[in-house]
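Anyone up for a design puzzle?
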């Protein structure tokens, strides 16, 4: 089993038809490939976490890299998870209801959410995603 975390700049609003298309297509494709994922949106940044067969994750990554609805993708982590965290084929959250910055206790002055995510420990990102999962205990990658 593998896991992948990446961030990218969102080019579509979360309330758009395009965002709904992302969600629906991802649920179908993830189910077919045996991958679970969670997409979080905060201040124009997508944070995406995947779990599943490494080959399937790489297939998804190649497809997602070409998607026009985001840009500047940066992989933050690739490797085996400590345990399977996700229970849904495609989960979604967004700030302000769920905020990584607030969960981390805020950001120092002048630090953007994107910079905060890039500097965060992978275990903190995984734990944050875990808090968004229904009825789930959390352990780090």
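Challenge accepted. My sequence:
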């Amino acid at each position: 089993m593998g896991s992948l975390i990446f961030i990218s700049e969102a080019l579509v609003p979360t309330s758009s038809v395009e965002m709904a298309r992302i969600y629906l297509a991802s649920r179908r494709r993830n189910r077919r490939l045996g991958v679970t994922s969670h997409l979080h949106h905060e201040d124009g940044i997508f944070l995406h976490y995947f779990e599943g067969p490494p080959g399937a994750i790489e297939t998804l990554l190649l497809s997602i890299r070409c998607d026009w609805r985001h840009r500047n993708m940066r992989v933050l982590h690739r490797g085996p998870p400590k345990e399977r965290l996700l229970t849904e084929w495609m989960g979604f959250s967004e700030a302000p209801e769920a905020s990584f910055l607030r969960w981390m206790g805020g950001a120092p002055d002048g630090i953007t959410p994107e910079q905060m995510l890039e500097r965060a420990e992978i275990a903190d990102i995984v734990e944050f995603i875990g808090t968004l999962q229904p009825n789930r205990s959390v352990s780090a990658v």
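A detail worth pointing out: The helical segments are 17-33, 54-65, 100-103, 113-119, 122-131.
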